[in-house]
Specification:
alpha+beta; Rossmann fold; 4 domains; seven-stranded mixed β-sheet; six-stranded mixed β-sheet
Length: 594
C-alpha cells in the first residue's frame, strides 16, 4: 500500500471533523492508520451509502499476532491457517458487528463467506511477514450525510474488537486452530501420495458422505469429534458411516492423524452401481468435491481425490470452438468434419465428447461420470438399437467402446456411476455396489454376470485408435469483450454463472466450481489470460499455466488493483473450462500436444 501513514487518533479526529458533512467527505479518510498492534488501510472509501461497502485492509505482523511459527511452516499449513482465521473473523463479525444502521449499507461489517471447502482466498493471506485481511465496512450515513460518531464507534470499538479477538493468538483457541491446520495438512499429504499408491481417491472409514440437502453442503447434523463406527439415529433419519469393503481397504499414514484406513479407488475404470437412493451419486459427489480440502466436522475431511479429477457430463447448448471430437463422433452426414468441430449450440453427445477432449487437453487424466447427467446415445448403444440403426449410419462411437482403451494406452482413469447400463461392467477393473450407503466390492460376481450376457450386444470397437488432442492457440480477439466500458465488471447470477462485461459465462457443468467467490476470481483471471494471449502464439494450456504462475509469484493483487476480499481460487482445469465455454472464443490454429 502506498497510502500516507497516520496514527489511529488522526482517524478518530477526521471522522469527528467530517460528521454531518456530505457523504463524499468520507474520501478524506483514505489512508493507512497505525493502531497499537495492527494497521488499518482504508483503500477506497465509498462515495455513496448505497454503493458497495468501503474496503479496509488489516495487517498484523507475526511478532504481534504471536501465532506459533509451526502454524505457517508450509504451504498446506498456511492454507489451513488462513481458512481458520477467516472463519474466526466471520464468527466475531456476527458477535460484535452492529448490523445495518442508517442509510443503505451504513453500519455493515462483513467479509468473504466460506463454504465447506478450504480454498485459497484473498480475504485472509498469511505470508512469512504477517497476516493480511480484507473486509468490507459500510461507512455510516444519515441520508447522504456523514455519521462520523457512529463511524468512530464502528472502527474503534466494533472493528477493533473483531480484529483483536479473531486474529491474535492470545484470543483464539489455539488447540482448535492447530487441529484445523493439521486436518488440512493431512488431506494435502494424502492427495500427494495417491499417485504413488496407484489410487485416484481415498475414502476413510467413518466418513459421513450425505449432505443436509441438495443445496446445503453441510453434514446432516453436527458430527461428533471421533469418526462414526456404527449408524447414528437422528431426528431427520439414519446416518451411515462409510465402511470400506475388505478387498479395497488400504492404509495411509497421515502426518498428524497417523494410520488411516479406508477405501482406495484404484486407477483404471471403476463402476459404482446400486439401486436408486442407495448412495451412488452421494459417493460420486463427495469424490468430485474432495479435489479440495474440507473443514473439520464436515464428515469428508479424509475423503481425498487426486488433484486432476474433473466432472464429465452432457451440456446441451454450450459453445464449442475447433475441438477434435472424431474419437467419438465421425462420418457425419454430408461429409461434415469433426476433427475441428465448432458449434454455437452443442447437442448432448457432441458436448460430452468435447468436454472429454478439452479436459484431456487441459491435462486431466481422471474423469467422473454419472449416467444421470450423460447423453445416453453417447454412452452406449444396446443390442436392439444396433440392429435398428446399422453401424454404417451411426456416427457416434459410444464411450463404452473407448473407456478401456483410454486407460490402457493413455492412463486416463474413469469413475462411472450407473444403475442402468450394464455394458460398462465389461470394461471395468473395479465394480462397487452401493447398498443402503454401504459399499461392496462385487467385481468378480459382476464380471461373471456380464460374461453370461455379453453376446446380446456386439462390440463396435473403432478401427482408428484413440488420439490425444492437439493444443489450441488462442486468438487474442477472444477477449475483446473485456474492454467494454474500460473496466472489468463481474456479476455472479448463481453459484456457477456470471455476467462479465455483458457476456454470460455458464459453468453449471463444471464440478470444480463450488463457491461463488471462485467466479469472481475466474472473471479476473480471464483478464490475465487475455494479457498472456496478446503476446501471441499462446496455447490455452500454456496461458492458463502462466496465469497460475503469476498468482503464485505475485499473489492476488495481480488480479485486481482494487482488492475486494471476495476472490477464491479454483484449479487450472476450471479456468481452462471457463475459456472453452466463452462464446467469443476464437482459435488461430492447433499444434501437436507434447
Amino acid at each position: 500500500m502506498q497510502h500516507s501513514s497516520y496514527s489511529a487518533e488522526a482517524l478518530r479526529k477526521k471522522l469527528k471533523r467530517i460528521h454531518g458533512k456530505s457523504y463524499k467527505a468520507y474520501r478524506d479518510i483514505k489512508g493507512r492508520y497505525r493502531f497499537e498492534n495492527f494497521v488499518i488501510s482504508i483503500i477506497h472509501p465509498q462515495g455513496d451509502p448505497f454503493a458497495p461497502p468501503t474496503v479496509m485492509e488489516v495487517f498484523i505482523q507475526h511478532k504481534d499476532a504471536q501465532f506459533p511459527t509451526t502454524f505457517y511452516a508450509s504451504e498446506s499449513r498456511i492454507l489451513g491457517m488462513e481458512d481458520f482465521l477467516l472463519r474466526e473473523l466471520k464468527k466475531r463479525i456476527r458477535y460484535y458487528g452492529g448490523g445495518i444502521r442508517g442509510t443503505g449499507n451504513s453500519g455493515l461489517i462483513t467479509a468473504c463467506t466460506p463454504g465447506q471447502e478450504v480454498l485459497r482466498r484473498d480475504a485472509v493471506q498469511v505470508s512469512q511477514v504477517g497476516i493480511r485481511v480484507i473486509l468490507q465496512v459500510g461507512l455510516p450515513g444519515r441520508g447522504r450525510t456523514v455519521d462520523g460518531l457512529t463511524a468512530v464507534k464502528m472502527i474503534f470499538h466494533e472493528l477493533k474488537s473483531i480484529i483483536q479477538t479473531a486474529l491474535f493468538a492470545s484470543s483464539v483457541n489455539l488447540h482448535e486452530m492447530e487441529k484445523h491446520i493439521r486436518v488440512v495438512e493431512d488431506q494435502e499429504h494424502i492427495r500427494k501420495v495417491l499417485p504413488e499408491r496407484g489410487l485416484v481417491a481415498f475414502v476413510a472409514d467413518g466418513s459421513v458422505l450425505p449432505r443436509r440437502s441438495g443445496i446445503d453442503e453441510r453434514p446432516p447434523i453436527e458430527l461428533p469429534e471421533v469418526p462414526l463406527v456404527e449408524p447414528l439415529e437422528t431426528g431427520s433419519g439414519r446416518i451411515i458411516p462409510f465402511k470400506s469393503p475388505e478387498t479395497l481397504r488400504v492404509e495411509i499414514v497421515a502426518p498428524n492423524a497417523g494410520r488411516l484406513t479406508g477405501m482406495g479407488i484404484p486407477e483404471g475404470v471403476t463402476v459404482i452401481t446400486g439401486g436408486g437412493f442407495h448412495g451412488k451419486s452421494t459417493l460420486l459427489n463427495a469424490l468430485i468435491r474432495c479435489v479440495y480440502p474440507h473443514v473439520p466436522g464436515d464428515g469428508r475431511e479424509y475423503v481425498v481425490t487426486r488433484e486432476d479429477g474433473v466432472l464429465i457430463r452432457a451440456e446441451d447448448g454450450r459453445s464449442i470452438e475447433r475441438v477434435d471430437i472424431s474419437n467419438f463422433i465421425n462420418n457425419l452426414p454430408f461429409g461434415i468434419s469433426t476433427s475441428e468441430f465448432s458449434t454455437r449450440s452443442a447437442s448432448g453427445s457432441t458436448s460430452q465428447a468435447a468436454n472429454i477432449m478439452e479436459y484431456i487437453e487441459a491435462g486431466s487424466r481422471l474423469f467422473f461420470i454419472d449416467e444421470d447427467t450423460s447423453a445416453t446415445n453417447f454412452m452406449v448403444r444396446d443390442a436392439i438399437m444396433q440392429e435398428v440403426v446399422k453401424r454404417d449410419f451411426e456416427p457416434i462411437t459410444p464411450f463404452v467402446e473407448r473407456v478401456r482403451e483410454m486407460y490402457e494406452f493413455h492412463r486416463i482413469s474413469c469413475v462411472l456411476v450407473t444403475g442402468g447400463i450394464g455394458d460398462f461392467i465389461g470394461c471395468a477393473d473395479t465394480v462397487i455396489l452401493m447398498k443402503e450407503y454401504v459399499p461392496f466390492d462385487v467385481t468378480g460376481e459382476a464380471k461373471e454376470i456380464y460374461r453370461r450376457h455379453r453376446r446380446r450386444r456386439k462390440s463396435e470397437t473403432p478401427s482408428i485408435p484413440f488420439r490425444l488432442p492437439d493444443e489450441r492457440v488462442i486468438d487474442p480477439h477472444t477477449f475483446s469483450f473485456l474492454e467494454k466500458g474500460g473496466r472489468l465488471k463481474i456479476k455472479p447470477t448463481s453459484l456457477r454463472e456470471c455476467i462479465i462485461n455483458g457476456e454470460k459465462l455458464n459453468l453449471d457443468a463444471v464440478g470444480g466450481v463450488v463457491e461463488v467467490n471462485q467466479l469472481n476470481a475466474l472473471g479476473r483471471m480471464l483478464g490475465r489470460v487475455a494479457a498472456v494471449a496478446a503476446e501471441g502464439n499462446r496455447t490455452l494450456r500454456h496461458a492458463v499455466a502462466e496465469v497460475f504462475r503469476e498468482i503464485e509469484k505475485e499473489g492476488f493483487d495481480i488480479l485486481d488493483s482494487r482488492p475486494m476480499g471476495h476472490l477464491a481460487l479454483t484449479r487450472p482445469y476450471e479456468l481452462f473450462a471457463a475459456i472453452s465455454r466463452l462464446r467469443t472464443l476464437k482459435v488461430k490454429r492447433r499444434i501437436k500436444s507434447k
